[in-house]
Amino acid sequence: MSEEKEVSGEVIESGQQSEQTKADNKQQSGNQQQGQTAAEVEERNWAMACHLSGLASMIGVPLLNIIAPLIIWLIKRDGSEMIDYHGKESLNFQITMTIVGFVCMMSIFIGIGIILTPVAMLFWFVMTIVGGVKTSSGERYQYPLTIRFIK
Questions:
Q1: How far apart (Å, rounded) are the C-alpha atoms in residues 128 and 94?
Q2: For the chain, first and last CA: distance in Å?
Q3: 91 in Cβ contact with 66 (< 8 Å)
């Protein structure tokens, strides 16, 4: 004889689980299999935000690509070595690319900037995305061609 329970207005037999309970258990077991706690996931998300917030200048606010990761890094760096590392890495890259962008824009007057500016912008965009994705997967990503202003 099987027992019956009422879950969210549904009657189910014991030994069966609702679809939501199954999904919750699967997600929890997936996180446990990877050995991740909620704090580790949050830490990785903040580290990823340091990188992806560099894209904030795309909304048209000058230097927001530096200001946004700087704010995240200043608020969260003391609580996590991972966020501290990725915040510095992101800031160094964004500062470097801001300088490169300025030089490219100035070189438009001598003609070569017409080619260099789009190349630099594409490099900045792609590397920022790559940094966010690599950080999301738990890697310590280091940007290429970056001046290390903050150590």
A1: 9
A2: 68
A3: yes
Q: Which of 104, 99, 98, 93 is nearest to 135 (CA)?
A: 93
pTM of the model: 0.74
Tell me which H or E stretch contains 39: helix 38-52
pLDDT digits (tens, 9 = 90+) for 135-144: 999 899 999 9
Exposed, middle or buried: residue 120 (CB in 10 Å: 0-12, 13-18, 19+)? Answer: middle
**Phi, psi angle pair for 11, to nearest 5°:** -100, 120
CA distance 114 to 108: 5
Tokens of 63: 């230097």
Q: What is the pLDDT of residues 1-14, one digit of tens each?
A: 445 544 445 444 44
Q: Residue 32 half-sphere exposure, CB side, CA atoms within 13 Å?
A: 6
Structure tokens of 34? 């990877």
Residue 55: both structure tokens together? 């894209």
Give 69's contacts (C-beta < 8 A, 6+ positions apart).
Answer: 50, 51, 53, 54, 87, 90, 91, 94
